[in-house]
Amino acid sequence: MEATVAQTGTEGKTWGGGNRPLNASYGKLMMWFFIVSDALTFSGFLASYGFSRFKFIDAWPIADEVFTHFPFLHGVDAPMYYVAFMTFILIFSSVTMVLAVDAGHKMQKNKVIIYLFLTVIGGLIFVGSQAWEWATFIKGDYGAVETKGGKILQFLDKDGNRAAIGDFAVRLPSTAETHTEGNGVWYMEGGTKTSYNYEEVKAGFLANENLLIRDQELVPDMAALRASDLEADKQEVARLERSYINLDATGEKAIYNREMSVNKLVNDGKLVVEGANLKHNEYGTPLFADFFFFITGFHGFHVFSGVIFNLIIFFNVVIGTYERRGHYEMVEKVGLYWHFVDLVWVFVFTFFYLV
Amino acid sequence: MAHDHKLEIFRGLVKFKSNERKIWGVFTFLSIVTIIEVALGIVKPEFLTENRFLAMRLLNWIFIILTLVKAYYITWDFMHMRDEVMALRRSVVWTAIFLICYLVLILLIEGDYIYEVYKSNYIKFSF
User: Fold this and answer.
1) Where are the transmembrane segments (chain B) (predicted)?
2) What residues does CATH 1.20.120.80 cover in chain A?
3) Distance CA B99, CA A100 (A)
């Protein structure tokens, strides 16, 4: 044998092969390196989200005005509660996962089964919740009007409560037809119609003196602006005082007075937006919806694939593969992936919903 | 394989009797931190939103620091990084942290530059 086997000169050395450098098996090490690369991918997404958000900060919605829904509680304003629930579920499923890994170390097959099963359930609840969040986001809330320049105008009453388009728009008989394949250009269909068109919203708004408009501009620190001597700042103060009624609410969205509201709607308004897709959304700049779908979608996909992996390993545990193998390291590796998914969610939750 | 786990957290302040107890202990800690974060996010106390440190609101500093604390405990105890060899820990953690910090730094610098361009010049929207 000695004569035919080539000697590479690395026998017995730490990285010479057949060894466990860093005291971890090949599979576990590779899982860690994969996690590093995926973490860098997600941090690229989050960094670009931060970059875009602060570049368009005056067209970006405020998260706890968008994510205010809770399942089965219609009309209840519950900002952030459901997202907090989702975070809690994912952390809890991480706990059951690490308990499964721990039971695996002690070769307790039944405990591994129970904990791994609970982890899968937690993951499914999370994915279902995220799907529900998407559906609510896409369906929309109060509705809005988009201007010719692309800004989103939202409606409020004089007390500062949001007003839904359906509450004040007027039905106008109209002869406009949506093109179907039968009666329009033969290869094109018209887009989906909103429940009211721009003319109907405009008519309703003009008829109702109580309604005001806001876009996403935030009230700046008026005290600092007024104290400044710069000409640009003085003009800015003049512009703000001409247009808005709630200049004492620093950091909140500025509400136009009635005259400016009518002005904006009639002169700049172009179309009604309800809900969200990748091109328009009723909350703010299109980038907001784009990033929401992209980042939470990527994360949700990772959770979903994690659930699939957990299911596969779960079946393997049940049929006794790891008992025969003598160790439950596969549960540990899949556990690392699952915890990585939880880690990403902790960061997405902070930067998307909290900051 | 690390069958024996280190059972102390908070630099030895809290020591657990078994690995299972340590896991539930860390879970309790993470839940408390999450509840604090969510409560602050809903209430948004004025003292924290109006004061800034290095151009960022104090509230946001709290969120980011608490998130890093949560990330530390998830990585160290749930992913068992505490029990791994120093070389593995360093090659994973230091690489990721260095690259992420670098990315955030250059994007913040770029973002500030572009913000100034938009604010003081004639371009309103280009991408």
Assistant:
1) 23-42, 54-73, 93-115
2) 21-140+288-354
3) 32
Contact A272, A154 (CB under 8 A): no
The string of DSSP letters for A186-241 reads TT--PPPPPSS-HHHHHHHHHH-TTEEEEEEEEP--HHHHHH---HHHHHHHHHHH
H-helix or E-strand spanning residue A258? helix A258-263
pTM score:
0.86
The hierarchical CATH code for the domain A21-140+288-354 is 1.20.120.80
User: A87 φ, ψ to 5°?
Assistant: -60, -45
Q: Tell which B residues from 20 to 79 touch A, by Cβ distance under 8 Å.
A: 20, 23-24, 27, 30-31, 34-35, 37-38, 41-42, 49-50, 60, 63-64, 66-67, 70-71, 74-75, 77-79
Residue range A138-194, pLDDT digits in tens: 988 888 888 888 888 888 888 878 888 888 888 877 656 666 666 666 666 666 778
Q: Do A342 and B67 touch (CB under 8 A)?
A: no
Which domain does B110 fall in, by range? 8-119
Does residue B125 sit within a domain? no
Report the alpha-carbon angle A181-A187-A190, nearest 5: 55
Q: What is the DSSP letter of A146?
A: E
Cβ-Cβ contacts under 8 Å, A36 against chain B: 92, 95-96
Q: Name the minimum distance, in Å, from the CA of B3 to any CA of chain A.
A: 7
Q: Residue B42 domain-assigned?
A: yes
pLDDT tens digits, A196-232: 888 888 888 888 888 888 888 888 888 888 888 888 8
Query: Would you say residue B124 lies in a domain?
Result: no
pLDDT of res. B1 = 41
- Which of A47, A84, A101 minimises the CB distance to B107? A47
Chain B: nearest CA to A88, how far in angstroms?
7
- Residue B34 in any domain: the answer is yes
Name the residue among A168, A165, A135, A83 with its Cα closest to residue A277. Answer: A135
Q: Domain tally for chain B?
A: 1
Please name the residue of chain B whose CA is at the shortest distance from the CA of residue A46.
B104
- Quote the radius of gyration of chain B (alpha carbons, Å): 20
